[in-house]
C-alpha cells in the first residue's frame, strides 16, 4: 500500500483533434453530473425509454430494440457478435483495417467458422466483392466496420442490407467512428444490428455503446434464451438456439431489461445514460442534415489545409470519413516529435496510427464538439508552425486560408464524400 | 421515428435508501464533469496509475494488478470468471442468494463443471462446510459473494484464502455490495481475485468495476494469452492455456492495457475513471476505520429503529452487512403501497426484494454518502408515519430515538457484526 491520496481530478484543457476520444460537449458533462435515480424508479425508466426514442432517430431506424450497452464501443461489438454468432456459425468479415481484424478476433473466440474479405488497409469492399464472397462462402452472418478509424475510410453500405437479405444473411455493422457525423442509415441500408460509441462524432465520453437491432435479428437472439431457475423468466421461444456464451452481453436479456418487462439484468450505468441521452438531444436539436454538413465542412477544411501545406492525404477521396483525416508524415519529419510539440506548446492532440500505418500517417479528427471552424483553423495553424520548425519547407498561412475557403464552400466541395 | 427531443436531464432529488444505486458524493459528480484526455496522454495514464494505487488501498492489497473494468459490477464478475475458468474447469460456488446464482449462471455459460454449496437464502457457509466441499469436489476455482444484497448477509471470509491455497484452488469473491463500507481485506483473507462496483458503499454511480488480481491468478490468466497477428503482442507464456472466450473481458489484455506496456485494448471510459478515482480519494481521506465505523453505526441505527417499531429484522445479526438491512413486511401491510408512499410523499426510496424474499422483506440501505445520521433518522421517521397510515399500530417517534441512541453508541453496539 502506498498511502498516497493524490490531488483532485483536474485534467489540462487539451484540444483533442485525434481519432477520439475528443472534447465532450459541456452540456453532456453537465448532464452527467446529475445525481442517481433508483434503477426501477419511473423517472429512471422514463429516461431509458426516451433514450431509446432518441437513438432511433440518431440511427435513422424504426427498430424498437434500440438501447445502450454498458461498456465502451468494443462492448457493443462483442455483445452483437456473441449474440448473433453461435460456435460453428459461418461469418463473413471484411478486414481492411484494425477494427475489421478485431471483429474476426472476437468471432474466433466465439468459435465461429470465419471467412474473410481481406483488403489492404485503406481499401473498401465493393458490393460485387461482397456478393461474390457471400455466394462463395454462404455465411449466416456478414460483419464489417462502417468507418475504421485506423484507416480513416468508410465502407459504403448502400445495398448491403438488401444483398444480405437476398441470401438470408444477418448483417452487423460497427458504426462507432461514424455515428453522429456521417449518415448511418440503418433502415435505408437494411442492416440488422448496428452498434457504436459516444466518443467520436456523438461528442460524448467513452463508456456507453448505443446499439440497434432489427426484428429478425431480435427473433434469432431471443431463440437463444435459456431458462435458469431464479435468474430469469422464459419467453415462448426459449431454448431453440445455442445458449449465448456471455451473461453480460446476452442481448436477449438486455433487450428484456430495456423492454416493458424490465427483467433485472445489470444495473444500468445511470451517468452514462444521462450522457448518451444528452449527446442525442444535441444532435437532434442541430438536425441530422446540418450535423452531417458540419462534419463534411470540417473534413473538407482539414483536407484542404493539409494539401495546401503540400502534404499528401491518405486514402481515396471517395471513401474517406468526414471526421478523421489521415495524412502521410513527410520525409525527414519526425512524426512523434511533431505530435509532442503540438501537445506541449499548443495543448493540441493529433493522432498517431496503428499496424502497417504506424509512423507513416498522422490522423487528424474534427468531429462532434470539435467539428468547428475555429478548432480546425487553430489546429492547422499550429501544425504549420510545428512543421516549419522541423525544417519542412512551406509558405506560412496558406493552409489556414485554404481550410477556411473549403469550410465556406461547404457542400460544393468534392474532396469529401457526401 | 418519433421526432421527439425531450427535455434536459433533470432528475428529482430522491433520497436513495435502497440496496443501491444510492446518492453519489457531489465531489464524485463534479469529478465526472471534467473533460476528456487522449487515451495515451501522459496525464491520462497518470490518472490510471493513481487509480490503481488508490484501489490497492481500498482493497487492502499489494496486488500490482488492481484496476477498473469498464462496465457495471456484473462486468467485473464476468471478466473474473471468464478469465479464471476454462470450459470444463471445476468450480465450487456458494449459492445463498441471487448473486450466488448469478455466479453459477455465468460459469454455466463458460462451460464450467459446476459444484455448489447450496444454502437457504440468508445463510452463510462455514469454513468447515467450505473445506468439506473442497475435499469432496476438488475444484480448481472457488467463488462466492461477499455481501449479497438480495439477502443482506455477508459471507465470512477469514481463512478462506488460506484454505483455498492449501488445496491449490484459485479463489474469487464478488465484493460489490461491501467494498467501501465493510472491510474487504483482500491480502489478509488471501483471496486471488476480488471485483466490485461503485454504486454501493463507494458512493459512486454504477458503470465501473474495480478489480484486484493476485500474482498467482495473473500468472494463470496470462498463460491463456494467444497471439493474433495485428492485434496484440505476445508474452513469453502465451498459448499454454485455453484461450479466454471473450475479448472485452480478457483480463490478460486488460492487465496489459493498464500496465506500462499500454497495449491498446478498449478505450478507457474516462468519465467513469474520474468518478472511480474520486470515490477512492474520498474513502481514503476519511480513513478506512472511520469509514467502516460510520457504516456500522448506520446499520446499527437502522436496525435499532426498525426494532423499536416492533418490526423483525431479516437474518442473523452475526452475519448482516452493515450497509443494507432486510426487514420483514408486517402482516396486513401492503409492502408496495408503503414503498410508493415513501417515494411519492417523502421522495425516499427503500428497496423491494428478489426471488423467495419478494413481497416478504424490504431492504433499507445506508451506505456511502447516505450512511449519515440524518438520512437514517429521516428515513425511519418517514417509515413510521407511513406504517401508521397503513394501520400498523405503534407509538410514534420511538424508532428515531432508538436509532439515534444506536448511532451514538457506535462501536459498543453489538447488533451489527464488526
From TrEMBL, chains A, B:
N6-(pyridoxal phosphate)lysine: residues carrying this PTM: 200
Gene3D superfamilies membership: Aspartate Aminotransferase, domain 1, Type I PLP-dependent aspartate aminotransferase-like (Major domain)
Residues given in the record as substrate binding sites: 363
Keyword Acetylation: no
Superkingdom classification of source: Bacteria
Pfam families in UniProt: Aminotran_5 (PF00266)
PANTHER family to which the protein is assigned, alphabetical: ALANINE--GLYOXYLATE AMINOTRANSFERASE, AMINOTRANSFERASE CLASS V
Protein name: Aminotransferase V
